[in-house]
Design a protein that fits this description.
By secondary structure, the protein is mainly alpha-helical. It contains 13 helices and two strands. Helix 7 runs antiparallel to helix 11 and helix 10 runs antiparallel to helix 11.
Length: about 325
């Protein structure tokens, strides 16, 4: 029975460090971008300080600075153009003729009607509220299952259902608390949804049904099937919310890169036009001033790329952890 219950969060189930998951998923993307930029700047200045010959002698009498920032200028223009293309691709998925829009609406309303039957009330329009209602439905049906096998002659069945229900309700309470104040547009809703390992729970329901099917009464079998249905609905709803978040994040990324590209282009153009190896004589804190200036300017021109890296780290991590839908666990963990 040791594999019936699971930990209540994705981090605990996967056995990964809190710092790693915070960097990949939880942290604000602007903070991650700033951290990457700060580390890059520090390493650039450090290398420019310790590597021989000195940085000033390397750039004096050569066109190193001009070559560096003319390349960055071209890269920025190309990158911004690519970002606009990505935005257009995301937006184009929402466009279509009237017939396609009608089918999308019909499919959405069909799913909404089915979810309404599962949760027993009108479907909330807020994504976090919808997920909470689905989790409430799974809790209620798990408790019905526990009551159905209470006092059973099969002590093993009763113990397994008890452990499974305790694990499910414990996981549910943690996820519902995380969803309480989560609003769509932030990553909080999706992050909380990732903590509810519905696929493992479906597997346990199917295992119990198969193992004890011949010994279960009609009411208990119905409770198992209804619990399985409620858990199964969590999968597509979570995937839909994930898809919407990805679209939201990509559009947000496009906007942020466009904002960052303007000062980056200005800095690259200024360095290309006004700065040479003989500029900014002297040193500050033991580091040549020209190295400080080039390091800051080079880091600023890379901010759009650092933004791209920070967003893609999160999107790729979520995509990897949610490749499969349904009771299929691809990692060496319990969902």
């Amino acid at each position: 029975m040791g594999d019936i219950s699971t930990e209540n969060t994705m981090r605990e189930r996967a056995g990964e460090s809190r710092a790693k998951l915070w960097l990949l998923l939880g942290a604000n993307r602007l903070i991650v971008t700033g951290a990457i930029a700060a580390v890059f700047f520090a390493l650039f200045v450090l290398l420019g300080t310790v590597i021989y010959p000195p940085f000033r002698s390397s750039v004096t009498g050569t066109d190193t600075i001009g070559t560096m920032f003319s390349t960055m200028l071209s890269a920025l223009i190309t990158g911004v153009t690519l970002v606009v293309t990505i935005s257009q691709l995301v937006i184009s998925q929402e466009n279509g003729p009237l017939g396609d829009q009608h089918r999308r609406m019909s499919d959405a309303m069909d799913v909404r009607s089915f979810v309404s039957e599962v949760i027993g009330e009108t479907v909330p329009s807020n994504p976090s509220a919808l997920l909470r209602k689905l989790i409430d439905a799974t809790e209620a049906r798990a408790n019905e299952l526990r009551e159905g096998v209470s006092g059973s002659d099969d002590e093993t069945l009763e113990a397994e259902v008890e452990e499974f229900t305790d694990s499910l309700t414990g996981n549910s309470e943690v996820v519902k608390d995380q969803l309480e104040d989560a609003g769509f547009g932030t990553f909080d809703v999706l992050f909380a949804a990732l903590n509810f390992n519905y696929s493992w729970k479906i597997q346990q329901v199917e295992r119990i049904s198969e193992k004890y099917g011949d010994d279960l009464d009609r009411g208990t079998k119905t409770a198992l099937e209804e619990l399985r249905t409620a858990l199964s609905m969590f999968g597509p709803i979570r995937e839909h919310i994930k898809t919407l978040y990805f679209q939201w994040a990509l559009v947000d990324l496009s906007q942020m890169i466009l904002y960052a590209a303007i000062p980056a282009l200005l800095v690259a153009g200024g360095m290309l036009t006004f700065v040479t190896g003989s500029s900014f004589a002297g040193a500050t804190l033991g580091v040549e001033n020209i190295l400080w200036v080039v390091g800051v300017a080079f880091t600023i021109t890379l901010i759009p790329f650092f933004l791209f890296v920070s967003y893609v780290l999160r999107i790729a991590t979520v995509a990897k952890r949610t490749l499969a839908i349904g009771p299929l666990v691809l990692r060496d963990s319990q969902g």
